[in-house]
Amino acid sequence: MSGLVDALLIVAVVALVVVRQFRTRRTDADRRWWVVPVILAVVALREPGLVDSHHRTESITLLAAELFIGLAMGAGWAWTTHVWAEADGVVWSRSTKASVAVWITGIGLRVGLFALGAALGVHQDTSALLLALSATLLLRAGILHWRAKSLHLASPHPEPRYPESTSSARRQATAYGDGVRSRKERV
Q1: Farthest-apart Cα atoms in the chain, separation
Q2: Mean pLDDT estimate for the chain
Q3: Predicted local confidence at residue 169, as pLDDT
Q4: Given 1, 56, 77, 144, which residue has the most CB atoms within 10 angstroms?
Q5: Euclidean distance between CA atoms 162 and 86, whole angstroms
Q6: Domain assignment of residue 179, yes or no
Q7: Does the pLDDT value for residue 136 go beyond 50?
Q8: % of the chain surpassing 70 pLDDT
Q9: How many domains does the chain have?
Q10: How far apart are CA 54 and CA 148, in angstroms?
């Protein structure tokens, strides 16, 4: 794929994922959460420009840093996502304001890596960014799957572990920076 097509694919995936995750969504613990990240990784890995052959060591170091940032972003995003189960056993999730901070920090670090690569004269292809995005999505989805499954499997109609009031039957997995309770949006 050309760099422009890769860039458009990255923007489209990020826009879709971010918009979807900042809405209250039903989280299905049994869905195939790994499919989209694996497809993105395959697309990224089949591109020839992942490593600059003229600056091999620097390129591999930048790629490793990009992947590390992607994994850290995925973990941070997953742990700042509010996850809860309603009385009927349905698990819901919604990203929080702390998730926005994770995204802003991750994007800032990636811009810094790109600037460092440009200063070193390393040719940087969009496939490295696509691979890091795949790592972000894969780790985030895996952690959310695990968190949702732990709430979903606790029992089909359990007593609430974190009751909001005497009439509420909501179980929650707390998220970092989670101070506000999310309500389901009408779909």
Answers
A1: 66
A2: 80
A3: 52
A4: 77
A5: 11
A6: no
A7: yes
A8: 78
A9: 1
A10: 45
Does residue 42 belong to any structural domain of this protein? yes
The answer to whether 6 and 62 have CB atoms below 8 angstroms apart is: no
Listed as own residue / partner, the contacts of 59-66 with beta carbons closer than 8 Å and 24 or more positions apart are: 59/117, 59/122, 59/123, 59/124, 62/113, 62/116, 62/117, 62/122, 62/124, 62/128, 63/128, 63/131, 65/113, 66/110, 66/113, 66/128, 66/129, 66/131, 66/132
CB 96 within 8 A of CB 175: yes
Instruction: Tell me how many degrees the CA angle 138-144-145 measures, rounded to the nearest 5.
Output: 85
Q: Where do the DSSP E strands lie in the chain?
A: 25-27, 81-85, 91-95, 171-173
Residue 185 lies in a domain: no
Rounded-to-integer distance, Cα 177 and Cα 114, Å: 29
Q: What totals of helices (H) and strands (E) does the chain contain, helices first?
A: 5, 4
**pLDDT over 90 for what percent of the chain?**
32
In a 13 Å sphere around the CA of 162, the CA atoms on its Cβ side amount to 10
Cα-based distances in Å from 15 to 92, 119, 149, 175 = 21, 29, 26, 22
pLDDT at 155 over 90: no
Domain with 37 in it: 3-156+168-173
Torsion of CA 93, 99, 103, 106, to 10 degrees: -110
* Token pair listed for 160: 């609430």
At 84 the three-state DSSP class reads: strand
